[in-house]
Amino acid sequence: MGTPEQKFTGRIFKEIIAVSDGHTVTITPTKNADADTLSAQRDVTTPKPKASANAVGYIGNSKTKKFHLPSCKTLPAEHNRMYFDTRDNAIQAGYTPCGNCHP
User: Fold this and answer.
1) How many Å apart are CA 59 and CA 81, to the nearest integer?
2) pLDDT at position 99, please?
3) Which residue from 19, 37, 60, 81 puts its CA 20 to 30 A from 3's CA?
4) Which residues of 81-94 are buried (b: 16+ CB within 10 A; e: fewer)?
């Protein structure tokens, strides 16, 4: 299977090719003949995705400042979730344990 490739066109660049291996994006511009600038090829490392419920020990509720076990039946809505690796990190961030799951 090949590497995903995206092509873009613009006023300054005839073609911009972006190739990613899932971690790094390589951008290669091809200058238009009438353009006066050209950027060199560069590699850009994409940031690591935020932790999910599968990769962390605790899920905090940004509205109530309570933190839960990932298995808790009273987890907050996705847009209110904060993820913590450890119980200590949740407490240091000002969160208190949930009264239902007792993390």
Assistant:
1) 6
2) 96
3) 37
4) bbbbeeeebbeeee
Paired with 6 in beta bridges are 18
What is the rounded distance in angstroms from the CA atom of residue 54 to the CA atom of residue 38? 43
Q: How far is CA 66 from CA 13, 71, 94, 99, in A?
A: 51, 14, 9, 9
Burial class for 16, CB neighbours closer than 10 Å (0-12, 13-18, 19+): middle
**Model confidence at 58: pLDDT above 60:** yes
Tell me the pTM: 0.48
Mean pLDDT of 90-100: 95
| 65 close to 96: Cβ distance less than 8 angstroms | yes
CA distance 29 to 31: 6
| Residue closest to 41 by CA, chosen among 31, 51, 53 | 31
